[in-house]
Amino acid sequence: MNNKQVVTLTFFRYKGLKNLWWAFVQMGRLPNLLKQIKELSFVKMLGSGGQSGFSIFPNFSLYGLLCVWNNEEECQRFFQFSSIFLKLKEKASQYQTLFLETLNAHGKWDGIEPFVPQKKQVNYQDKIAVITRATIKWNRIWHFWRMVRPVSKNMRSREGLIFSVGIGELPLIQQATFSIWENLEAMNNYAYKSPEHKRVIQLTKKLAWYKEELFARFTILKTEGSGIIQLT
Description:
6 helices, CrtA-like, Spheroidene monooxygenase
């Protein structure tokens, strides 16, 4: 058995009031069921924001399922046979799963480090996926949201950005972004050369906005499903 860690992120898009309500209910219902799957070392049901980055406005039509698997065999079995996944897919108008391999990661999510780097040498032409996630301190919420809006707006027009969406567990407090870039250079240009992004990084350190934060980069091994992210 291949015990190499596999990270998957599935997006589901729903249409129609009945399916939208059903999907919303799953946010509260499924986490405890998913945590009973022993082959999963980490799992999160995620809502999405109405913009490409951090957003206070929810998008009730798009949801995410983030899974970290202990091995590839159990990962594939889940997507082929799990009644949980098959029902999520059946109700959705579109779905797309990205199979990811961790390049590097630092920080924690709920007190743990879920992503294990696979020590793979980076191909500088490979597409790069990025997750940034933070728990915002209650007494920093207003200031954080006031300052982060220009960054999210600027991100949408960045050269080399393929896809970006705000995701999270709790509105306002627990926020994340998932983005895909044409290559490492495009991602680095935004992360380290964008004036708006650099300013937010400086303010994060100065004002201590976050109770907890995480940053992780991945290569994309393959995708299943279609219609949500155009990679080619």
